[in-house]
Amino acid sequence: MTFSLTIFCILLLFAFKGKPYRKASNIFIILISIALVLCSGLRHESIGNDTVNYLNMFEDVKLESWKDLTSDFLSKYFSPTNNHDKDPGYFIFIKITQIFTSNSRAYLFIIAIIFFLSLGKFLKEHTESLQELLFSYVFYINLFNGYVPNSAIRQTLAISIILFAYTNLQKKRCLLFFVYVILASFFHKSALICLLVLPMTYLKNIDKLYYLGIPLFLLTLLCVNQFASLFLSNNDIYNDYLSGSYYGNSEKPFVILILMVGLYLIGLLGIISDKNLTNTKLFYVGAFCSLLFSTLVWVNPTLIRLMTYFAPLMGIAIGSAFNRISCSKMIYAVVILIFLISAFRSIGDYHFMWEPIFLIH
């Protein structure tokens, strides 16, 4: 499905090329969002490592009272003892959702709609051309769509809120940024890593920070286990990621890391000639954080979900960089082609809910 969605994005670009951006971007976002929502909502239970678990959680919450879900909220937030206590805001959200529907399939659609509305609104506000919009979506679809919203539902809701936090930070509303991040952390505590963005956006020489990205990436990769432990060693639940036991051992993701470095270098070429760093520094900070957190996939491939907090920012930064570098059309075409080739290799990985797939529990 990744390949089909990428092709659809490219077709939309050609369909609306040359038309006024405001109107064309609205239709582009609406159409690709509808496609993404349908793919997410109609996916088979086997699509996404955690989909079955989240559907079971949805059913379990039906048997719990409001009192059970709201009692000891802060203790569950700060010191979760099991997967059910972790991120207590999420279970309250499920209970609220069940006021409107008790159908778990409808719930998957609700999650997808919330996320893609947030993503579409964010990209609409911060992109200036269809080429930037296309790259942002292709970047997201190829690297992150498998996890958000199609597996990590708690984090999907957290990121949906974080996108509003970034918009407020871009408008210098730091208090609202902080409030949104705290709210997002009730759904997934890892959202707190987004607070790292705040002090970075106040650096005067953001380009110098960006130049340090590659050396720090290499240093972080050498000490990646220690780096991961900074964010994931607070309790036994998150330690499962560090041990590699959460989803089992997987092959080292060389391709993702090489691709991230290549995209980051494109951003480096763009930042050199960027005359508007005051207004674009948030996106370069996001690219910087995305590169550093991409090293976590060396510990466990599923940790790419942490990078997803910054991915929309990086998509915008790299997408806009193509406008400021020489041979941009050729480089842009090569990058999209690389994504297409990568997506082609995943054909057959997606299944609709009505397809006969046997699950092993």
Structural descriptors:
single chain, mainly alpha, about 350 residues, globular, 20 helices
Sequence of secondary-structure elements? HHHHHHHHHHHHHHHHHHHH
Structural class: mainly alpha
Global geometry: globular
CA-to-CA gap between the ends?
A: 24 Å
Largest sheet: none
List low-confidence stretches.
Answer: none
> DSSP strand (E) fraction?
under 5%
As a whole number of angstroms, the C-alpha radius of gyration is 20 Å
How many beta-strand runs? Answer: 0
Helix content: 55-70%
Helix tally equals 20
Description:
By secondary structure, the protein is an all-alpha fold. The protein has helices spanning 2-16, 21-41, 51-61, 66-70, 73-78, 88-97, 104-126, 130-143, 153-170, 174-185, 197-200, 206-211, 213-222, 224-232, 236-243, 254-272, 277-294, 304-307, 311-321, 328-344.
Question: What is the secondary structure topology, with strand pairs?
Answer:
Blueprint: H1 2-16, H2 21-41, H3 51-61, H4 66-70, H5 73-78, H6 88-97, H7 104-126, H8 130-143, H9 153-170, H10 174-185, H11 197-200, H12 206-211, H13 213-222, H14 224-232, H15 236-243, H16 254-272, H17 277-294, H18 304-307, H19 311-321, H20 328-344
Helix pairs in contact: 1-2, 1-8, 1-20, 2-7, 7-9, 8-19, 8-20, 9-10, 14-15, 16-17, 16-19, 17-19
Summed up, what is this model?
This protein has 361 residues and is an all-alpha fold. Helices cover 67% and strands 0% of the residues. The longest helix has 23 residues, at 104-126.
